[in-house]
Structure formats: structure tokens, C-alpha cells
Amino acid sequence: MICDIHVHIGRNVPPFVGGSDAVADMVARARLHGIERQCISSLGNTGYLVNPTLDEVREANDHVLEAVAAYPDTLLGFCYLNPRHGEAALAELDRCLRHRGMVGIKLWIACKATDPLVDPILERAAALGVPVLQHAWLKTVGQMEFESTPADVAAMGRRHPRATIIMAHLMGAGYRGILDIAPVPNVLIDTSGGDPEAGVVEFAVRHLGAERVLFGSDAPGRSYGVQLGKVLAAQLTAAERDLILFGNAERILRR
Would you state the CATH architecture of domain 2-253? Predict the structure, then answer.
């Protein structure tokens, strides 16, 4: 079995090839690659929203809830939040997780991971025992104003040692980003971001341990098969590969 910890849907996202139902298409294509579970979130239904309104966040999460209801044995929902909404963000968190069965939280680029606005969300996540998938990237040029770096995520982990934080985008973090989070045991990393590059997954396992690396494709922005290649072609033991492909996700999500 394989669990993909990082997948997106959106009402504006077209199917990979033809058809009219992008979610059904993603489920079918994932299964062709042996991916039986996908953790899905939406960053907005009218395009990726840097600073979405509360209504836009709710609509995005409603689409995730619809998709999970249609494929309850395959899809697991992550609640997208904008920390700038304050108490309303916590109310949306409760709506999606406590009352509607979502299993995690997704934070993107409305706030940096170092911003105190994210702290109430991390505190609630720790209390509920659910993971937070935090976008991060380390760029030489083009870093967005409120886009977190791996060092920012490491700081978040130190502030919230009881929270389980999954830093997105191994290939966007690179070797330096791996080392930034290495001393913070509650920060894990997913394998998404960019194309396969020899040695990066092995470097992450060497410095973090296989227990802190999870498979993520970032589909549909990247293909399932190419992203799986990062793990399947890496020089890993069978036990390490199993942890990355499904064991760690099963443990964190308490399946």
C-alpha cells in the first residue's frame, strides 16, 4: 500500500486526460500506481490564493469534504486555513476536523511559519493530535513575501514541540533545508517538489531518519509516477521504503 500525504484538488483543476470529473480521474490514476490513500487539500477553487477570504477558505474545504464523501475509502481531508482569520480560522478548523472528520491541516503562504498568527492553529492541532502540512521552499530568487523557508518551519517546530509538522517539498528544501529541520524531531518532511534527483532522499533519511520522511506527490501539479520514482529508485532498505511510502503516514494519521 502507498499513502500520498500531499495532493491538491480544486474546482478549477481539469482532469489529467479528458472527462469531466477531476477527482475521479485522480483517484483512478493514483490507483494505477498503487496509491490507495491520498491526503487532499485545496488552496482555493478559483486558482491558488495567496491571502484567501474566509468564504474562499470555506468553499475550498467544502470541495474537499465533498470529495472525501464520494471516496471515503481512498481520500482523507486536510483543512486549509488562513491564519489571518484569527478566531474564525479556529472555528473553521473545528468545523472540518471535529465535526466533519478531516484528519490534518494545510498551511500555505498567507503567513510565514514564524508569524505568531499561526500559533493558535498549531496549539489546536497539538491538542487534537493531527498533523500540520506546512508549505516551505528555499529559493535564491523569487521567494514570496510570506513564504516560509525550512528555517522558518524549524522555528515553528521549536515553538510547538507537541505538534506534528510535515514540511512540504523535500526538493524545494534541498540539503540545507534538511539540515535546518534535523535538530527538531517533531518536524518531518514530504518528498514532493521538483523532479527526482539522485541522493536527496537518501540524504534526508541519513540526517532525519526514515521515520521523518513521507511520500508526497503534490499532484496534480506533478505526476504520481515521477514522484514515486524518488522513493522507489533511492538506495533504501525495504523497511525504510515502507516507512516512507505508508508506515509513517499510517502512524501519524492513526489509521
Answer: Alpha-Beta Barrel (3.20)
**Where would I find the beta strands (DSSP E) of 55-170?**
75-80, 104-107, 132-134, 165-167
Cα–Cα distance list, 175 to 39, 170, 204, 245 (Å) = 25, 9, 8, 21
Domain boundaries, the chain: 2-253
pLDDT tens-digit map of 198-225: 999 999 999 999 999 999 999 998 999 9
Distance of alpha carbon 213 from the chain centroid: 12
Q: Which residues of 242-255 are buried (b: 16+ CB within 10 A; e: fewer)?
A: ebbbbbbbeebbee
Of the candidates 132, 190, 124, the residue with the CA atom closest to the CA atom of residue 157: 132
Residue 171 CA to residue 163 CA, distance in Å, equals 23
Three-class DSSP labels, 161-202: CCCCEEECCHHHHHHHHHHHHCCCCCEEEECCCCCCCCCHHH
Q: What mean pLDDT comes out for the span 46-59? A: 85
DSSP per residue, 30-51 = HHHTTEEEEEEE-S-BTB--SS
Is this structure's pTM higher than 0.85?
yes
pLDDT-derived band at 46 (thresholds 50, 70, 90) equals: low
Using one digit for the tens of pLDDT, what is the confidence trace for 174-202?
Answer: 999 999 999 999 999 999 998 899 999 99
**Where does 32-147 show beta strands of DSSP type E?**
35-41, 75-80, 104-107, 132-134
